[in-house]
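Anyone opening a protein record will find just a pair of labelled lines. With that in mind, the following record should read easily:
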Amino acid sequence: MKRLVLLAFLVSAVGFAQNLKETVLFDYDKFFLTDNAKSKLEAVVSKLEVSQLKSVELNGNTDADGHSKYNITLSKNRANEVLNYLVSQGIPGEKIQLKFDGENKPIAENANETGKQQNRRVEITFVFTEKEYTNTIFNQFEKESQFFTGKSNEVITITGKEGTKITIPKNSLKKANGKFAIGKIDIELQEFYKKSDAVAANLHTMSNGIMLESGGMVYIKATSKGDELQLKKGAEITLEFASKDNPNDMQTFYGYPKEDKTVDWNTNDNFVTTEEENWSTYAVFYSDGRTQRDTVYGESPKKKSFNRATTDTEKVKAISTTILTSTKLGWINCDRFYEIKDKTDLLVDIDLKYKPEIRLVFKDINSIMSGYIDKNNKLILGGIPVGRKATLMAFSCVENEVYFATKEIVIDKDATIGLELKKTSVAEFKTVLQQLN
């Protein structure tokens, strides 16, 4: 009975197993399958994912009784008998490979009947094509882009559906070959303010592993007649983010796509200055009840000047928005480094064979962190604040099947959190993501 239970466990895991081994035994000097052997093979085959089957190796063996040449033939006949039965059960014959070693590879002593019985065997190895672990789940949640048009010799101002306002100066866009764009300009925009949208887009809020607090992320692409454009040297676009009550030290962070298709954020030597300093790349934050710079940006040919917001409409708008500038298009994040006084590492105990994506989504901070696998093959979330409430998530997509796990946690010092991925539907995954908001 214990042997049958073990067999059931191995077969149930075959979807992710690289191979599965089984053995059938034979009567003395016989190569015909017993009823028990047939039943065992039938049970194994019924639970195999034949589409994932790469090959089957059969290795025939005998005990040491009789002539060695005769035993080679007997072991070959035993392997062929198993081959024929597997083919009758639906295993493609071209995937089956035969080996036969006669009495040369015993696994037990031939001094008694018990040992001889163990040697009268055919060893079966089912080899499977390992399932492909990909992030194709992100393709199913790809956010719909918004499209706008403008003219190269005019200021282009667009407002996204979620409230992002972007201003592109006239004659500021050029092609990769250095020539300026002329005529119609096409603008593509994606906005990411909700945590659910960010997770679904494979985004996080980290800069070289350091935690950031975000006030919104956007993706901007400009083209002219199919050619992608970039800003000329010295040109800046203005972005008015729709997020409210941001801290007053937000900066422009640029996104740099990595090999794993995530986006890492970096200020790229951009910095915040004061009004008295010469402005380069800067952030203007409007706040109510805090130290504030309640100004509206204006520009003259020789210098950049500031006019104080005077009307109620201007003041209301100033309180609820963050205005940044950017010297690049592409991925742009309204961010700041989040100060952590008491930080720790979190170890996630999860089956890495799924190659899962890990996200830590904070409850009261607009921040999403991802994990990494260390040199000891452990999944780590590093440099996170102790005592904060968060949702720990893991997800993977294996051949279009979604696996997901989540747990609400309060971050403890040097804690280990276990997650067990379970198969779910895309609709269920979307529902869980919405709860992050």
About this structure: Helices lie at 2-12, 35-46, 68-88, 113-119, 137-140, 195-200, 312-319, 426-434. The first strand starts at residue 19 and ends at 25. Residues 352 and 379 are 8 Å apart (CA to CA).
